[in-house]
Specification:
333 residues, alpha+beta, 3 domains, six-stranded mixed sheet, two-stranded antiparallel sheet
């Protein structure tokens, strides 16, 4: 197996310049997290907290530095090259590759976080409401809440303190079914009253609204995390959110919005996420499948180049003829 610095990455993952990757110990290994630490510094303690936020019943685990080996097309294995990292360590992780090891260290498994669905962004879900005649009705803050928030915030953005704002739900009531522990009374069919409160609504700078809906930034215990480049709007965001505990949005809604954003922000890791695996077989990767013509633009993609490399290695291995000395050495064994 060939050691590689990192797996084949999706177009989005390369765009986000991720430099730190965490793999499962399953075989083949699965890429769990990918982070650009120039944008979001992380530690072992950070990963522990995120893991239990995404999957509260996660089994105990620790991280170890690993070497990533490629064996085939988009298939990887990991081997540890460092000691276990203390779970509560707040030391920043050096950029590189890490394995997610269970308490037994040798057990190969997929962590519970892999069972959690990857939801689309709030903006993408809104755009999918083609069947709804007036989507804006689902997004508007109701009049009773609007009046209360105006009196509370005086049109000031809860992040920047400026007045060029729109009134927004912190967590859209129509997405209540995505919450982990929503205190619903009867069913998900009706918008629960729990979400239609002033503590779930804020004034937000107009330039930040589209990125907030697209889960491009969020709040991790009041630390502002920016998952991707948001252009000039990034200058509006401080490093931390300062909210009076008796005013502004409730931490519960902030945390639930962050949980959805976190799952969204850490997805799109492997090349297969957006380049697709369906065409891997169609271009041909063994002698039983006719290769696509070399003019096919898919050969120029990262996945296509990986397949071509695999084709060449397979052909070279099949045509290899051992020398007389090698045959003699083999006979002596």
């Amino acid at each position: 197996m060939t050691a590689v610095p990192h797996p084949l990455l999706s177009t989005k993952s390369k765009l986000y310049q991720r430099d730190t990757f965490i793999f499962s110990t399953s075989l083949p290994a699965r890429l769990l997290f990918g982070v650009n630490q120039r944008r979001i510094p992380i530690s072992s303690a950070t990963i522990q907290r995120w893991a239990y936020l995404l999957a509260p019943h996660s089994e105990p685990f620790h991280l170890r530095s690993v070497t990533v080996h490629q064996f085939g097309i988009m298939a990887y294995a990991i081997t540890p090259n460092g000691p276990p990292i203390p779970e509560d360590s707040s030391e920043p992780l050096p950029p590189g590759n890490y394995g997610w090891y269970g308490a037994g260290s040798t057990t190969r498994f997929l962590p519970q976080i892999t069972t959690m669905p990857n939801p689309p962004s709030f903006a993408a879900m809104q755009n999918s409401w083609t069947w709804f005649p007036n989507q804006q009705i689902m997004l508007d803050v109701i009049p009773s809440v609007t009046q209360a928030v105006r009196q509370r915030d005086q049109h000031r953005c809860f992040i920047t303190g400026t007045n060029d704002t729109d009134l927004e739900w912190m967590f859209l009531p129509c997405f209540a079914h995505l919450c982990r522990f929503p205190p619903l009374k009867d069913s998900y069919d009706d918008i629960p009253e729990f979400f239609e409160k002033p503590s779930n609504a804020v004034f937000l700078h107009k330039d930040l609204v589209p990125f907030f809906h697209d889960n491009a930034f969020n709040f991790d215990d009041h630390r502002i995390l920016i998952f991707r480049d948001i252009g000039p709007a990034q200058k509006l965001l401080p490093s931390h959110l300062r909210v009076d505990p008796d005013e502004g949005p409730d931490d519960w809604y902030l945390r639930e919005h962050f949980r959805i954003s976190l799952k969204r922000g850490l997805s799109f890791l492997f090349c297969s996420s957006d380049d697709g695996r369906a065409w891997v077989n169609s271009v041909g990767s063994d002698d039983t499948v006719e290769l696509a013509p070399m003019t096919d633009p898919r050969w120029q993609t990262v996945v296509g180049q990986s397949i071509w490399e695999n084709v060449l290695e397979t052909r070279m291995a099949a045509s290899y003829v051992p020398s007389d000395e090698e045959e003699a050495d083999q006979a002596d064994r």
